[in-house]
Design a protein that fits this description.
Order of helices and strands of chain B: EEEEEEEEEEE
Structural class of chain B: mainly beta
Largest sheet of chain B: 7 strands, mixed
Oligomer: heterodimer
Largest interface: A-B, 24 and 22 residues
Distance between the termini of chain B: 39 Å
Number of helices of chain A: 0
Structural class of chain A: mainly beta
Shape of chain A: globular
Shape of chain B: globular
Number of strands of chain B: 11
Number of helices of chain B: 0
Order of helices and strands of chain A: EEEEEEEEEEE
Chain lengths: ~110, ~120
């Protein structure tokens, strides 16, 4: 299986901050990389697909980049509703997820 | 917009079979692939498997020997059965639609939308 490693595992930030989360694959996955936002008790939400395509309805402050093994999710200006856990997921082979990055209010 | 809702027992005894159903609303189940994903407490997300409306399936090899996913198009539902469960199968179980596109060279897939998830505890 392809292992997905996210960093950091947790992050404290303030409203208005620019935040970057990194995801690294154990082998090249081209751009077969998706990002999700998860809040406990709610359905996980797709933010970015195919590494850099913004899902319809997702605010433009979210962006994704990368290819091969290294990927980033960037939130340009944190809003109160963005405090959540973020997961990357590869779809190059049998689907696997990163361990998550918990984004907390500073 | 399409909605998914998981249902089933929240408590299952060790060695028994875990059974869950996902009901799809506001979309035809006769398109897309439909997936199950789980998250054990304090751990990451794990893809369990998926089914196409035709009934063809793909399973995570780590669970394949204990797993059955089926679809009932008449009820717009798909189901999960996991046999011989242990405490390690305690998790929040999500259902999700597997969507994607083909760009002429590659298929890109993602999960959207998801259900809210249901906690299943394996305990005597």
């Amino acid at each position: 299986d392809i292992q997905m490693t996210q960093s950091p595992s947790s992050l404290s930030a303030s409203v208005g901050d620019r935040v970057t989360i990194t995801c690294r694959a154990s082998q090249s996955i081209s751009t077969h990389l998706n990002w999700y936002q998860y809040k406990p008790g709610k359905a996980p939400k797709l933010l970015i697909y195919a590494a850099s395509s913004l899902q319809s309805g997702v605010p433009s402050r979210f962006s994704g980049s990368g290819s091969g093994t290294d990927f980033t999710l960037t939130i340009s200006s944190l809003q109160p509703e963005d405090f959540a856990t973020y997961y990357c997921q590869q779809s190059y082979s049998i689907f696997t997820f990163g361990q998550g990055t918990r984004l907390e209010i500073k | 917009q399409v909605q998914l809702q998981e249902s089933g027992p929240g408590l299952v005894k060790p060695s028994e079979t875990l059974s869950l159903t996902c009901t799809v609303s506001n979309d035809s189940i006769s398109r897309y692939y439909w997936s199950w994903i789980r998250q054990p407490p304090g751990k990451g997300l794990e893809w369990i498997g998926h089914i196409y409306y035709s009934g063809s399936t793909s399973y995570n090899p780590s669970l394949k020997s204990r797993l059955t996913i089926s679809v009932d198009r008449s009820k717009s539902q798909f189901s999960l059965k996991l046999s011989s469960v242990t405490a390690a199968d305690t998790a929040v179980y999500f259902c999700a639609r597997r969507a994607g596109y083909y760009d002429g060279n590659n298929y890109y897939n993602w999960f959207d939308p998801w259900g809210q998830g249901t906690l299943v505890t394996v305990s005597s």
